[in-house]
């Protein structure tokens, strides 16, 4: 019989709508403003002691806590109002100190049964609400010092190769100082070094047998640009590792970088990963009779009472790591599997081939910042003090010549190993970088724009409903039910896929609603034409209306979908947000405008003989 769906088809359509309703439900539960506390490293545990100290400090400061909980090695403290977040973060940071990261957050209030099935609210973009803004500053002095340290290693190697004796090669106050054993060697040392170090200005002092190297102004500017550009690339890689949708990472001024992460939930983890300036250095362990000026003493990172002397010369660094992954050694302890690029593999091979039997140390370097508060002219001012921590994470005997692939053991917990592998995959920062400003972002154009965006959807939906009911009567009711289903399914898809909704995305939803009802207009117009102009019976007209309108609807939606795909592929930011909602809306509107309305028509008219239609 015409206009009847089999039972399985009706159940399948209802199942899709039911699942859509469930996955759209989390959007009815607003998030709570919160602060999140975690360790600066994965090995630092956050316990009930930190939770109690934080809540007591907030209580003493007159900041009311809605709820505090400890889970997954971090503390989440929910607050009543978003205006309390900055004050709460400052109080907690002073109380707990620099070993803990205190980050602003938005805590979901979705019921547990929804969370257990993976249902979550739509991520809102920075122009609505939901995300974090970081302003980061590159330490140019540290970038200069790092470059001079690399040059110092090259100078030592050159002088040893040419058998020119020297007392010390050191970096002091932005200059490279070379103290030779004899002033007679100054001309020869200068001639040898000037061949390769063309970016340096040379000065010599015969009285002190001292050769001083300083980078030229142009070289300093190029180094600063390189440091910022390399940090931009590294931060983008780290953001990609975090899986953030539609992030913004761009340069701001001479030495600052802006990072905006829309829809981020765990801002503490994001801050820890983005701000980590960790790097590795591979060095040989110093020989017992080595010159003290050519060696450095370091403690072990996980054993502060143990130390070892390493050579100052660096074999290679984390900058030459091509890939890194987490694994387990024969004792089921976490390790990091390293694969070096061509240059790194060559340097590692050259250094280990003649040194089989000696030990090689892996030095872990972290650039950090201490934060303290001072009173300046009666005002409380935040003062940042940068410092560097260096510790050995592995010291193992070289059993055979190493190439581009090897492993690092002794990295601590699996979480520390995972973070180290992530940082090495994403690339090391060319220079330390510090957080100058951090804030959660509300609507960039104000709360009024959020309300206007939602109102535009409500007004557009209401006008469409009024028109359809007035013009198509019962069939208008079918279209309105399908339209509501379309909106629910679209929101559910945005939530399930973790897409970020922005103001342009809301525009895409409004456009989708108009295009969705357009399909029903085509179907209803075709049914009326079959009845009034071709003289078909109501049942045949319904069947013909859906069959003949389908190809037109399909062609129109495919062409629009192609445009949306092009917008997504070549656009950025807001344009992609619009393209995503438009593309998903086209798919849901095809489903609801054709299948959902047809199911309703079949329920009402498909099981009986009718003489006329209310259309």
Protein traits:
Hypothetical Protein, Haloacid Dehalogenase-like Hydrolase, Chain: A, domain 2, protein-transporting ATPase activity, SecD-TM, Alpha-Beta Plaits, 14 helices, 23 strands, Protein translocase subunit SecD, SecD_1st, 615 residues, transmembrane, 4 domains, Multidrug efflux transporter AcrB transmembrane fold, alpha+beta
**Would you tell me the overall average pLDDT?**
81
CATH topology of the largest domain: Multidrug efflux transporter AcrB transmembrane fold
Please tell me the CATH architecture of the largest domain by its name: Up-down Bundle
How many angstroms does the end-to-end distance come to? 22 Å
Strand order of the largest sheet: 2-3-1-4
Question: How much strand content do the residues show?
Answer: 25-35%
Structural class: alpha+beta
Q: What count of domains describes the coordinates?
A: 4
The total of helices stands at: 14
CATH class of the largest domain: Mainly Alpha
**Beta-strand segment tally:** 23
Largest sheet: 4 strands, antiparallel
Q: Which percent range fits the helix content?
A: 40-55%
**What value does the Rg take, in angstroms?**
33 Å
Which residues form runs of ≥5 with pLDDT under 50?
none
Can you identify the CATH superfamily of the largest domain? Multidrug efflux transporter AcrB transmembrane domain
| Silhouette | elongated
Q: Secondary structure elements and their pairing?
A:
Layout (H helix, E strand, L loop, with lengths): L6 H18 L7 E8 L8 H13 L4 E7 L2 E6 L5 H12 L3 E8 L4 H5 L6 E2 L6 E8 L1 H22 L4 E7 L2 E6 L5 H11 L3 E6 L4 E6 L1 H26 L5 E5 L3 E7 L4 H9 L3 E6 L10 E6 L2 E9 L4 E2 L3 E8 L5 E7 L1 H11 L6 E18 L2 E19 L7 E4 L5 H13 L6 E8 L6 H51 L2 E2 L1 H30 L5 H33 L3 H32 L10
Parallel strand pairs: 5-23
Antiparallel strand pairs: 1-3, 1-4, 2-3, 6-12, 6-22, 7-8, 8-10, 9-10, 11-12, 13-16, 13-19, 14-15, 17-18, 18-21, 19-20
Helix pairs in contact: 1-11, 2-3, 5-7, 7-10, 11-12, 11-14, 12-13, 12-14, 13-14
């Amino acid at each position: 019989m015409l206009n009847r769906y089999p039972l399985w088809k009706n159940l399948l359509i209802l199942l899709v709508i039911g699942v859509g309703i469930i996955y759209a439900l989390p959007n009815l539960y607003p998030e709570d403003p919160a602060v999140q506390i975690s360790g600066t490293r994965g090995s630092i545990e956050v316990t009930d002691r930190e939770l109690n100290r934080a809540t007591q400090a907030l209580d003493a400061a007159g900041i009311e806590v809605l709820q505090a909980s400890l889970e997954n090695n971090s503390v989440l403290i929910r607050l009543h109002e978003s205006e309390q977040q900055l004050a709460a973060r400052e109080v907690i940071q002073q109380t707990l100190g620099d070993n803990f990261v205190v980050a602003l957050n938005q805590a979901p209030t979705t019921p547990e049964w929804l969370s257990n099935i993976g249902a979550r609210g739509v991520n809102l973009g920075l122009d609505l609400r939901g995300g974090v803004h970081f302003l980061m500053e590159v330490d140019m002095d540290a970038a200069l010092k790092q470059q001079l340290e690399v040059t110092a290693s090259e100078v030592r190697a050159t002088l040893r190769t040419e058998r020119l004796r020297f007392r010390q090669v050191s970096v002091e106050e932005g200059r490279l100082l070379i103290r030779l054993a004899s002033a007679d060697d100054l001309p020869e040392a200068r001639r040898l070094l000037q061949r390769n170090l063309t970016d340096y200005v040379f000065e010599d002092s015969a009285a002190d047998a001292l050769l001083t190297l300083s980078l030229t102004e142009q070289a300093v500017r190029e180094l600063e640009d390189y440091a910022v550009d390399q940090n931009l690339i590294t931060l983008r890689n780290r953001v990609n590792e975090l899986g953030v949708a539609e992030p913004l990472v761009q340069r701001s001024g001479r030495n600052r970088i802006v990072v905006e992460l829309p829809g981020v939930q765990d801002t503490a983890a994001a801050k820890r990963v983005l701000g980590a300036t960790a790097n590795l250095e591979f060095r040989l362990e110093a020989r017992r009779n080595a010159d003290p000026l050519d060696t450095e003493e370091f403690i072990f990172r996980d054993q502060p009472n143990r130390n070892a002397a390493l050579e100052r010369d660096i074999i290679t660094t984390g900058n030459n790591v091509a890939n890194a992954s987490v694994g387990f050694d024969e004792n089921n302890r976490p390790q990091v599997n390293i694969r070096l690029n061509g240059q790194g593999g060559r340097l590692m091979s050259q250094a280990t081939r003649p040194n089989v039997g000696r030990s090689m140390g892996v030095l872990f370097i972290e650039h950090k910042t201490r934060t303290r508060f001072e009173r300046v002219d009666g005002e409380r001012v935040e003062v940042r003090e940068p410092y560097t921590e260096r510790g050995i994470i592995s010291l193992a005997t070289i059993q055979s010549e190493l190439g581009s692939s090897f492993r690092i053991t002794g990295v601590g917990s699996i979480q520390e190993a995972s973070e180290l592998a992530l940082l090495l995959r994403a690339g090391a920062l060319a220079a330390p970088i510090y957080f100058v400003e951090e804030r959660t972002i509300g609507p960039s154009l104000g709360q009024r724009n959020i309300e206007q965006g939602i109102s535009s959807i409500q007004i557009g939906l209401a006008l469409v409903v009024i028109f359809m009911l007035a013009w198509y009567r019962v069939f208008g009711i079918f279209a309105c039910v399908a339209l509501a289903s379309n909106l629910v399914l679209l929101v559910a898809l945005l939530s399930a896929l973790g897409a970020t909704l922005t103001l342009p995305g809301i525009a895409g939803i409004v456009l989708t609603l108009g295009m969705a009802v357009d399909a029903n207009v085509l179907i209803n117009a075709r049914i009326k034409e079959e009845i009034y102009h071709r003289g078909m019976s109501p049942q045949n007209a319904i069947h013909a209306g859906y069959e003949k309108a389908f190809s037109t609807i399909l062609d129109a939606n495919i062409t629009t979908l192609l445009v949306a795909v092009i917008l997504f592929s070549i656009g950025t930011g807001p344009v992609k947000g619009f393209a995503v909602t438009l593309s998903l809306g086209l798919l849901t509107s095809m489903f609801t405008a054709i299948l959902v309305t047809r199911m309703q028509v079949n329920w009402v008219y498909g099981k009986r003989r009718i003489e006329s239609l209310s259309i």
